[in-house]
Amino acid sequence: MTRIILPVPSLWLDVFQKIKALGYTGVSFYSDWALLEGEQGDFSAEGVFAFEPFFEAARRIIAKAQITNGGPIILFQPENEYSQATSDVTFPDREYFQAVEDQYREAGIVVPFISNDAAPRGYLAPRTGTGSVDIYGHDAYPLGFDCANPYTWPDGALPLEFRTLHLEQSPSTPFSLVEFQGGKAIPALCLDARLHSELRDVVRRSPSMG
């Protein structure tokens, strides 16, 4: 769900109910940060930009649906791709990430936290200090996003280092590919750009990585 299309929180419940009625069990929620902070340091979350009621409702729903309460939720991802920042910002900001985690713990979420690094950089891996997650995970997009050449197997794209990195970054937890490429971006240009042979090879190798 992209809230830019429907920026009025009071109307979201209707959309979520329709999504649920279609048989879906989850929703990805995206927002353009420029709507909240059009200029650096000028932040506003008032009126139609007030997210807190939505986040509070989501926290309550998730807390009730945990496996500890007989529900299906076994892991929780407190952030997504918290993996880079501008050069003038301290990164990763462990205090920020800990504050995010604390909000969810205070809301009653007790299942393990899992991360999703945009690349296997090891940020906030278990037992590395403030803001650490319980299970470290990362993305993998071996095909890249070259839709002009949808059937090109990029040189050096097959990941061979994941096992080594896993042992360096988080050897005590399962190897986790939290987000994995199943095609390429821009569907109109890349509907058939899946390079099944490459993806099948990556999937086949993945269990050996951890």
Description:
The protein is mainly alpha-helical and 210 residues long. The chain is 28% helix and 3% strand. The protein is built from six helices and two strands; from the N terminus they run H-H-H-E-H-E-H-H. It has a two-stranded parallel ribbon with strand order 1-2. The radius of gyration is 19 Å and the shape is globular.
Which keywords apply here?
210 residues; mainly alpha; two-stranded parallel ribbon; 6 helices; globular
How many helices? 6
Structural class: mainly alpha
Q: Strand fraction band?
A: under 5%
Q: Uncertain spans, ≥5 residues at pLDDT below 50?
A: none
Give the strand tally: 2
Could you give the distance between the termini?
A: 33 Å
Output the strand order for the largest sheet.
Answer: 1-2
How big is the Rg? Answer: 19 Å
Q: What is the typical, i.e. mean, pLDDT?
A: 84
How much helical structure, as a percent, in the residues? 25-40%
Specify the overall morphology: globular
Short description:
It is built from six helices and two strands.
How are the SSEs placed, and which strands pair?
Blueprint: H1 12-21, H2 52-64, H3 94-106, E1 138-140, H4 162-169, E2 177-180, H5 187-190, H6 196-205
Parallel strand pairs: 1-2
